[in-house]
């Protein structure tokens, strides 16, 4: 966070701001202050701080959905002792997730990439039938704790419709 570079005491707002930068990095593949060079580490950190201070959220998130800049603005406006509204922050990205019709099937890209590398068939894609997604189940080799490129079966996930009601337990939303 910017506050960490300025030597200020850290709080939840700084953790959330740092997470925001991770999200920007995951979306864009880079951050404007990456790759800065300096003779000494302290000079490099100073350059990074200057770049962060002079990079507006609008320019940082220019090619991204608005939720990213909204998230970072919210974090930067928190005071040291403020308790963040985690539900609001999660809802920002849940809405984005739904708008892009992503499905929370708990099959992650890095598992599919590993599976593809070990497979002779380079095409692994979910099968959608009657709002149910079928994806491969990738087994874990318990001895080596690595993924084995074996499809034991398929798992099904029902897609969530926009008008489907949700139940909230704590900060987490569940489809009913």
TrEMBL record:
Q: Which Gene3D superfamilies match?
A: Transferase(Phosphotransferase) domain 1
Q: Which InterPro entries match?
A: CK1_Ser-Thr_kinase, Kinase-like_dom_sf
**PANTHER family in alphabetical order:** CASEIN KINASE-RELATED
Q: State the name under which the record lists this protein.
A: Non-specific serine/threonine protein kinase
Q: Which organism is it from?
A: Rotaria sordida
Q: What is the lineage of its organism?
A: Eukaryota, Metazoa, Spiralia, Gnathifera, Rotifera
């Amino acid at each position: 966070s910017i506050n960490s570079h300025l030597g200020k005491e850290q709080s939840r707002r700084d953790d959330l701001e740092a997470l925001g930068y991770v999200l920007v990095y995951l979306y864009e593949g880079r951050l404007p202050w990456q790759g800065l060079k300096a003779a000494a580490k302290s000079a490099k950190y100073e350059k990074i701080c200057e770049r962060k201070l002079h990079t507006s959220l609008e320019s940082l998130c220019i090619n991204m959905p608005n939720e990213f800049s909204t998230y970072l603005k919210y974090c930067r406006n928190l005071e040291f002792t403020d308790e963040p509204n985690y539900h609001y922050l999660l809802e920002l990205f849940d809405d984005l997730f739904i708008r892009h019709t992503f499905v929370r099937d708990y099959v992650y890209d890095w598992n599919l990439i590993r599976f593809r590398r070990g497979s002779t068939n380079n095409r692994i894609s979910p099968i959608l039938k009657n709002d149910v997604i079928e994806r491969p189940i990738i087994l874990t080799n318990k001895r080596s704790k690595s993924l084995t490129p074996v499809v034991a079966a398929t798992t099904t996930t029902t897609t969530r419709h926009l008008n489907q009601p949700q139940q909230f337990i704590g900060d987490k939303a569940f489809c009913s």
